[in-house]
Write a structure and sequence with these properties.
GO terms for molecular function: amine transmembrane transporter activity. The protein is mainly α and 444 residues long. 76% of the residues lie in helices and 0% in strands.
């Protein structure tokens, strides 16, 4: 069934969201499937742990900044091409990683290319969802789309088990996975940018898509600004985008502190085997799925209010931030006091549940507060999250040694207090800032 917002049948829109979700797995899986075999790679490449860890940092840095390149072009020139072009680099990099002789310089270069190719999926995918789902149903669709980027860090360690016989199997798997996703996008994902295809009525009703280099422009839909540094600067000056992105970064840093210590805690303190540790990531993984789904449903339920404005989505975030904070602080002291392992799992679950609850509302709001540039807005949020994760990765071990596990993780958990303050500020002044920006645009 089509809607007034999109002429595409509901089943086809669901398929499009599923494709975006599948593509959204690629980058996070590529980043995390690699981590469990780092000790083996130290020996293979005959380098120190610091040198091999640097290949992870390089990937995360590129994965944080490159979406800024892709997102603006996706808002300006089309979504589909901004999937296919980067994916070509991703597939090529993984083929070479699986076949070229072991060389640390080549590893660094190809990890850079790999991150460059995988970096478009999050922001472009959010733009696709905003193209085909009206705001009243958008959070539910985004909650499903976010399963991909959120499950990637969980599935990565599990999929690393394929490297039990040879580490190159990891990159061979990623190349094959990327190629399958490429074919699915090529033949089943239509262009959705509303400037090019409008409400989608020009796309036909079938599921199969004949590949095209370029879509004709549909009249009546304003074109977003051409990509430029000035455009990103203007978005950063828009207080709701900046504050949402800072909030996301702080929250992700707290959750990442749990994730990067989780495996070490289970193996060293509770004597879990590598397989048991990998399977344990299903706990935070299920939290992300459940929290995302419930958060999306509640966020869209707020749309039923007659006086609805986009900022109303923030009203559920305080609960999510409190749940996340309780999870991180509870995790801190159950580990510190050597509590039974089930308590560690419960609090790790709560930290992920609260985080993803907040992220769904934030991502949906970023597609609404500046409708012409949803991918660019989400890319800024993605940048803040990945930078925060990189900083947390770099300092958490040092802080644990100096402060102790309990107090270090408690400090990370208390960052969510800053997030609660940001939410209160956005609830109070967000509508005024958004209306002021809309008035300025209408006068241009």
């Amino acid at each position: 069934m089509a809607s007034a917002y999109s002429a595409l049948p509901f089943k086809r829109r669901v398929l499009i969201v599923c494709i975006a979700t599948l593509a959204g797995c690629l980058g996070p899986i590529a980043g995390n499937i690699y981590v469990p075999i780092l000790p083996e790679l130290e020996e293979v490449f005959n380098v120190s742990s610091t040198t091999i860890d640097g290949t992870v940092s390089v990937f995360m840095a590129l994965f944080a900044f490159c979406p800024l390149i892709w997102a603006s072009w996706a808002d300006y020139g089309g979504r589909k091409m901004l999937y296919l072009l980067p994916l070509s680099f991703f597939i090529l990099a993984n083929i070479l990683l699986a076949t070229v002789p072991a060389n640390i310089v080549a590893l660094y270069i190809l990890r850079i290319v790999q991150a460059f190719g995988a970096s478009s999926v999050m922001s472009v995918g959010a733009g696709i969802v905003s193209d085909i789902f009206e705001p009243k149903n958008r959070a539910k669709a985004i909650s499903i789309f976010m399963w991909g980027p959120q499950l990637g860090p969980v599935l990565g360690p599990l999929l690393s088990l394929i490297a039990t016989t040879n580490w190159r199997w990891i990159f061979g798997f990623l190349a094959l996975f990327g190629f399958v996703v490429y074919l699915i996008i090529l033949f089943f994902l239509p262009e959705t940018l509303r400037f090019l295809v409008g409400d989608g009525s020009c796309l036909g009703q079938g599921y199969f898509v004949k590949p095209k280099l370029q879509e004709k422009v549909v009249e009546g839909y304003p074109r977003p600004p051409k990509p430029s540094l000035k455009n990103y600067w203007n978005l950063l000056k828009y207080k709701p985008v900046l504050l949402c992105s800072i909030n996301s970064g702080l929250l992700f840093a707290t959750f990442y502190g749990v994730m990067i210590t989780f495996s070490r805690v289970l193996s060293e303190q509770y004597n879990f085997t590598p397989i048991e540790t990998s399977l344990s990531y299903l706990c935070p993984g299920s939290a992300l799925i459940i929290g995302s789904s419930i958060g999306g449903w509640l966020s869209d339920k707020l749309m039923r209010r007659e006086d609805y404005i986009p900022e109303h989505r923030f009203s559920i975030q305080i609960a999510g931030l409190l749940i996340s904070m309780a999870g991180v602080i509870g995790y801190a002291w159950t580990v510190e006091k050597h509590a039974p392992v089930y308590a560690v799992f419960i609090f790790a679950f709560l930290s992920g549940f609260g985080m993803t609850w907040v992220f769904v509302a934030t991502t949906t709001y970023l597609t609404e507060c500046s409708p012409a540039q949803p991918s660019a807005n989400v890319a800024i949020g993605n940048l803040m999250r990945n930078v925060a994760a990189a900083i947390c990765t770099a300092i958490v071990d040092v802080l644990i040694r100096k402060m102790g596990f309990g107090w270090c993780m408690t400090g990370l958990g208390l960052l969510d207090v800053v997030g609660i303050i940001i939410v209160v500020v956005l609830l109070k002044w967000g509508p005024k800032w958004r209306k002021s920006r809309e008035q300025v645009k209408s006068q241009v």
